[in-house]
Amino acid sequence: MAEITATQVKELRDRTGAGMMDCRKALIEKNGNIDEAIKYLREKGISKAEGKANRATKEGIIHSYIHFNNRIGVLLELNCESDFVARTDEFKALADEIAMQIAATNPLAISPEQIDPAILEREKEIAYNKAVNEGKKPEIIEKIVEGNLKKFCNEHSLLGQELISDSTKTVKDLLTNAIATTGENIQIARFVRYQLGGE
Question: Do residues 145 and 47 share a domain?
Answer without folding.
Answer: no
